[in-house]
């Protein structure tokens, strides 16, 4: 789990900027707004090498190895990593690769385009740019589909590590969005902002979907830009992002400038409207007994009586039970004949994992 405090941010900035080669960002001093974005686009495009889509799997052992959580050498997957406990499953590099959606979580991993391929018609070099393509569980990659990123207010699917897809609760957009866990929101924001910076001259030729802006500046739709700025501000650059940026530079000879210098996000697009998400649940719940053995799940937490709905998702992310006013008369949930397995309890307060034995 990231444990970066405000007092360390200045030191972190110095360390991250020092990772870039000397003079790499020459010409950016004094620039801001569209001028800074365009200059950065020129810098990170010059010298960049396209190693091909197939080459990504060869790079991932250097760029996406878990040396920070379990520290076991497995694939670091944002959609299955549990930063607070054991992962529900993990992958070894080169084992269980798949070219399509997996049948179940933990079945195979593939290459997830943070900016969907459909928006740029699978054209090079976007289709193989490692800075926005991460190894990810095939099933959860399928959940994400080509939806934009945002805060989910009403989930239809939840992965085993708590990533969600469902109705948007982000201001300015009411469609379907995908929301990763808090640990990786800043990572995704900096990848999205990298993409619209590197490819700003091509944005007018891409499909915008519900994500891209269609012009060099600002490059994103206004609602999505505010989500990305907020996520980047709330989830600072982590050590493993720095390692990944260095590995990506070694692989394709360009860098993500917003990892090297997070301040450039504000210099280009302005400060986030808010540094917190009022509709994002932060209150933890305690579930017991866990595993559940008698069909009753006890829940401990603050203001349980204010929770309007509890939803239970199975290991495939499928909604299997909905309970209205679940804690009106106590703190027990009666589970409906759930078979043995892993489940996710979703409420307005928190997303928690439990087992049925």
From TrEMBL:
Domain of life of the source:
Bacteria
SUPFAM superfamilies, from UniProt? His-Me finger endonucleases
Instruction: Return the broad EC class.
Output: hydrolase
Taken from the record, one Pfam family name reads Por_Secre_tail
EC numbers, comma separated: 3.1.-.-
**Which first-to-last residue range defines the signal peptide?**
1-20
Give the InterPro entries listed for this entry: Endonuclease-I, His-Me_finger_sf, Secre_tail
Residues forming the Secretion system C-terminal sorting domain are 287-352
Please list the GO terms describing molecular function: endonuclease activity; hydrolase activity
UniProt entry keywords in alphabetical sequence: Endonuclease, Hydrolase, Nuclease, Signal
Assigned protein family: Belongs to the EndA/NucM nuclease family.
Q: What is this protein called?
A: Endonuclease I
- Give the organism, scientific name: Kaistella antarctica
Taxonomic lineage of this organism?
Bacteria, Pseudomonadati, Bacteroidota, Flavobacteriia, Flavobacteriales
């Amino acid at each position: 789990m990231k444990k970066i405090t405000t007092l360390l941010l200045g030191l972190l900035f110095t360390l991250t900027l020092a990772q870039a080669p000397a003079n790499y960002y020459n010409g950016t001093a004094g620039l801001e707004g569209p001028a800074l974005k365009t200059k950065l686009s020129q810098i990170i495009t010059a010298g960049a090498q396209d190693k091909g889509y197939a080459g990504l799997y060869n790079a991932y052992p250097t760029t996406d190895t878990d040396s920070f959580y379990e520290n076991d050498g497995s694939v670091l997957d944002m959609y299955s990593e549990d930063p607070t406990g054991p992962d529900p499953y993990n992958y070894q590099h080169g084992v269980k690769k798949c070219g399509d959606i997996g049948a179940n979580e933990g079945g195979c991993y593939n290459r997830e385009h943070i900016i969907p391929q459909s928006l740029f018609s699978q054209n090079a070099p976007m289709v193989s740019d490692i800075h926005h393509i991460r190894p990810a569980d095939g099933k959860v990659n399928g959940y994400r589909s080509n939806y934009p990123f945002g805060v989910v207010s009403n989930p239809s699917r939840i992965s085993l590590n708590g990533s969600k897809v469902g109705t948007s609760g982000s201001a300015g957009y009411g469609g379907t969005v995908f929301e990763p866990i808090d640990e990786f929101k800043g990572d995704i924001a900096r990848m999205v902002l990298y993409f619209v910076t590197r490819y700003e001259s091509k944005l007018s030729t891409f499909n915008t979907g519900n994500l891209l802006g269609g012009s060099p500046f600002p490059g994103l739709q206004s609602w999505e830009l505010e989500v990305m700025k907020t996520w980047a501000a709330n989830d600072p650059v982590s050590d493993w992002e720095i390692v990944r940026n260095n590995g990506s530079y070694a692989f394709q000879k360009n860098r993500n400038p917003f990892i090297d210098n997070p301040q450039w996000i504000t210099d280009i697009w302005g400060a986030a409207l808010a540094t917190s998400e009022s509709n994002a649940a932060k209150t933890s719940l305690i579930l017991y007994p866990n595993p559940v053995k008698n069909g009753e799940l006890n829940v401990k937490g603050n203001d349980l009586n204010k929770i309007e709905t509890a939803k239970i998702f199975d290991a495939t992310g499928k909604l299997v039970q909905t309970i209205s006013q679940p804690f009106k008369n106590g703190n027990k949930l009666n589970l409906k004949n759930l078979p043995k397995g892993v489940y996710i309890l979703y409420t307005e307060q928190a997303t928690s994992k439990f087992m049925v034995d």
